[in-house]
């Protein structure tokens, strides 16, 4: 719970009363490697916070899995396009490792916003950060070379590259695994 409180304090100050409210609203949950936190077609009813573990977001497009994002320890996990309007998700969220998370339901998130002193500000800042990340990722897919997208991936996720299968990384940056091998070889030769 300390990691969760620290993550929230990144956005807003917390009083001891705020911490008590947050502790009461979040529940610990465990997921096995390969287990889904969310599957496409379900409504995303929770925001998750990863205390330990790693997840990937993916969509099935024309019968092929396309990895769209990763989250690790200390980060929030949610399909906000499903969570905010409470409509079915197009995204799957899967644990890549055994994971320990804290969850807060949609209803309890409303309580968080109402009862935690700067709760609404937290929501606005956190969602804004998610929005900017998504826009930058989409822009990168259209404008950056695969090599630059790979370098950006490693700049953004320097500590998890060895924890993720290479074919998920290739899917995330929008290339075939063979192309990723060539890019990695070229970058290794440059250094």
TrEMBL record:
InterPro entries with a match to the protein in the record: cNMP-bd_dom, cNMP-bd_dom_sf, RmlC-like_jellyroll
Domain of life: Bacteria
PROSITE patterns to which the protein is assigned, alphabetical: CNMP_BINDING_3
SUPFAM superfamilies reported for this sequence: cAMP-binding domain-like
Domain Cyclic nucleotide-binding: 20-105
Annotated protein name in UniProt: Putative transcriptional regulator, Crp/Fnr family
Originating organism: Fibrisoma limi BUZ 3
